[in-house]
Amino acid sequence: MRAALALLCVAAFGCATRAPLPPPSAAPPPAADQPEEAPPPPPRLAGIEGLLTLRGYSTAFYYVPGTLDRAAHTQSRLEALAETFFKVGRQPPLIEVWVLDREAWEGAGLERPYGLPQVVGPSAYAIPGWGDEGTVAAVEALLGRPVDPLRDIPLRGTAEEGGALAVADALIQVEASLDLMLSTGLEVEQPWLLGLLAQVLARLTFERFEPGRMPEIATLFDAIAAAHGGLQAHRLEDYRLDLPLEEDLWYQAQLLRGADVIWVKEGGTASSRWLYWLLDRGKPVTRAEVEKRFKGLAEWQRASFAP
Question: CA-to-CA distance for 178 and 167, rounded, in angstroms?
Answer without folding.
Answer: 17
